Known about the structure:
The chain is an all-alpha fold. It has two helices and no strands. The chain has one domain (6-47). The protein starts with 5 loop residues before the first helix and ends with a helix. The relative contact order is 0.08.
Amino acid sequence: MKKKPIYLWVLLILSALISVPSLFGIVSPLPSKEALRTAQKQVAGVNA
């Protein structure tokens, strides 16, 4: 088996570092407390 080239590992790590914060940014915006409160209000409104 050949060794994987280093640039592939670098590319993989860079893509992971770029994608993880963007995913967290989509899921929970920076004002996380406010977002959680609004989400809870929306869920309560849907359930009620």
